[in-house]
Amino acid sequence: MVKKLCTFFKSAFACLALFLFGCDGSFSMESGKEKMEEISVANWNVQTFFDSTNDGCEYDEFISNKKWGKASYAERLSRLASSIKAIDADVLVMEEIENEAVLHDISNFLAGEWNQKKIYRYACFAKDEGSSIGCGVLSRYPLENLTLHSIDVRTEISMPKMRPLMQLTVCKGEKKLVLFVNHWKSMSGGEDETELWRMWQETVLCKRIMLAEKSNAAILACGDFNRDINDFKKSGGQEKILLREKADGECENGVCVHSPWFDSGRNLVEPGSYFFRDEWSRIDNFFAAGSIEIVDFYPVTSGPWCDSETHVPEKYQVWSGNGYSDHLPIFCVVRF
Known about the structure:
Layout: E1 17-18, E2 38-49, H1 60-63, H2 70-87, E3 91-97, H3 100-111, E4 122-126, E5 134-139, E6 143-149, E7 165-172, E8 175-183, H4 191-213, E9 218-224, E10 233-235, E11 237-244, E12 254-258, E13 274-276, E14 279-281, E15 284-290, E16 293-299, E17 330-335
Parallel strand pairs: 1-6, 2-3, 8-9
Antiparallel strand pairs: 2-17, 3-5, 4-5, 6-7, 7-8, 9-15, 10-11, 11-12, 13-14, 16-17
Helix pairs in contact: 2-3
């Protein structure tokens, strides 16, 4: 079972680990005369963002490096806070945060030097017990109903540690956005060898979206899926992705979601979000379903976190203290 660590800076809500069951659903656009709201959402894998305290769960390069400490952590915090201000999203989702204290530190860095109208007053965090890193959300709008969803697979070989799916609600006025935060199994150990576990995580997300669609919710799933957008199963046009309800590569049942990585001409948006072995991939994603429309989308390349010409991310190097992350932030505006 998944254990949780979560906090809301404004209010506290219960977190619950659940097993998953699903039903039918499909992608739709909201219609009618009801007032629509817009929210900007950014997603960024900030790459092993550990605090300065050695708890023994950090990666080896942090534990063994004598240059890592309070000063280097503070510098990295300052750099991230400046980046967050430049990205300027209403909701910021981050993968690879060590703990909720890091979110408090980020908030404190922002609160002391920024436009008060743009402060992120709400936040939440979750990770599996014993894991090194988890996922965090900062929001200018109230957050509600944080729930964690996990799997317990006993029909396969020994299951590796996998991060839970976060489900929460973002409230803007009378409108509510159901947000799913994902950080799927990495390709460490081999892309083909680890794909099974990403398929299981796909079933978790699929079934939760199916349930959310029953109430005509506006749904946005985001995160680091560690799977390129071209490796998802397509449904109809390129921009329609089928999330499957069974961990079976041949499964034809599931839920249809919209991906903004394909433009109106069904061409891939450039650049990707992750650059590895001299090749771009698009493993960071937004998926829309239900009563929602993605009206704008792009990888954010206008900051010091990437090369100004090639847009290749400036990977963080613990030995030098330089860099930001090995991923680009991705940004979207949703209407619901």
